[in-house]
Design a protein that fits this description.
The complex is a heterodimer.
Chain A (H helix, E strand, L loop, with lengths): L2 E6 L6 H12 L5 E6 L2 H13 L3 E8 L2 E7 L1
Parallel strand pairs in A: 1-2
Antiparallel strand pairs in A: 2-4, 3-4
Chain B lengths: L3 E6 L4 H16 L3 E6 L1 H5 L19 H12 L5 H10 L3 E5 H7 L13 E3 L1 H8 L4 E4 L1
Parallel strand pairs in B: 1-2, 1-5, 2-3, 3-4
Helix pairs in contact in B: 1-4
Classes of the chains: A alpha+beta, B alpha/beta.
């Protein structure tokens, strides 16, 4: 099981969502994708995409405007 | 079958092309299938070297307004149209070119970015896809 990190710090709409999707497409079943960023709407919208894709949202953390979202494929 | 969005890109304005690609990429990222139908002024953006050439739909001011908006976009780290369209392709989005527009405007397939275009089509193809789409937009 691999852990894939996606750095979207400083990126704006729709890049965090798109980069998350790209990483999830490349991931194998069971792999974990960890996305970090600071675009406020993406913190809400990446979990929406995870739900729409039927994948597992492991956790969402935020500190000082930077968030980290972990997803399992 | 996945849900689907079909978008008609009729405008060749830079800001409207951004809207089409942002919505298209967002829909792909959320697991939908997406087709973009480029027609009329929109199709001119698929000519070689044409992607970033569109004016601003309002306050273009002979390009001054566009220059100001592009400067602002760069500062905010907004992705370029080229990057957005490459992402669109990478995520499996489909790009279709209107063949009637090509005839009217005298555009030949070799004038267009064939690396991006999946197919050439007419209104029937759009309707065939739109009737099974949950989202369809005219931009």
């Amino acid at each position: 099981m691999a852990e894939i990190k996606v750095d979207c710090i400083g990126e704006t709409c729709p890049v965090p969502l798109v980069e998350t999707r790209k990483a999830l497409r490349k991931a194998k079943e069971g792999d974990i994708v960890e996305v970090t960023g600071n675009h406020p709407s993406s913190k809400k919208e990446i979990p929406m995409a995870v739900k729409a894709l039927g994948l597992k949202l492991l956790d969402v953390e935020e500190s000082g405007g930077t968030w980290k979202i972990r997803i399992q494929r | 079958m996945a849900e689907k969005a079909t978008i008609i890109v009729h405008s060749g304005d830079m800001d409207k092309l951004y809207s089409a690609l942002i919505i298209g990429n967002g829909a792909l990222a959320m697991g939908m299938d997406v087709s973009l139908f480029f027609t009329f002024w929109g199709l001119q953006r698929l000519e070689k070297g044409g992607l970033e050439k569109g004016p601003l739909s309002k306050m273009n001011m002979l390009g001054l307004g566009k220059w100001m908006v592009k400067k602002k976009m760069k500062k905010q780290n907004v992705a370029s149209l080229e990057r957005m369209i490459q992402d669109f392709k990478e995520l499996g989005g489909k790009i279709l070119a209107c063949d009637m527009t090509m005839d009217i405007m005298g555009i030949k397939p070799e004038d267009l970015r064939q690396d991006l275009i999946g197919d050439y089509c007419g209104v029937g193809t759009y309707l065939d896809e739109a009737r099974e789409s949950q989202i369809t937009l005219f931009i």
